[in-house]
């Protein structure tokens, strides 16, 4: 997400920008985003082996969270990288409830937000 994208968002009164699978800036530094209310970055998302999102270009093995230990490491690594929230993708096939719970609990322990969404119908049933 760059300055132009965020500046365009102001035209539509966007108050929160969520940068998913994007670098903070080409130099790796956050720019001065005082002109918008809220800008958050996640860099990547947590998904599971075999999910639709696991086949997206650029998804690393580190994003394939198939057990609680991997969930713990994912949150620990992402928080150390300075992300603002943990993105969780629920899918079919997808993570077990135990894995999703671990992602949320570990993020909360580190005072980090979590955002989950269903990749398709039935993913959260």
Give a written overview of the molecule.
This protein has 125 residues and is of the alpha/beta class. Helices cover 29% and strands 18% of the residues. It contains 3 helices and 5 strands. Strands 3-4-5 form a 3-stranded parallel sheet. It has a two-stranded parallel sheet with strand order 1-2. Helix 2 runs parallel beside helix 3. The radius of gyration is 15 Å and the shape is globular. The N and C termini lie far apart (33 Å). About 12% of the residues have low confidence.
Q: Quick one: how many beta strands?
A: 5
User: Largest sheet at a glance?
Assistant: 3 strands, parallel
Q: Strands of the largest sheet, in order across it?
A: 3-4-5
Rg value: 15 Å
Beginning-to-end CA distance, first to last residue: 33 Å
Mean pLDDT: 77
- Topology order in helix (H) and strand (E) letters: HEEEHEHE
Overall 3D shape: globular
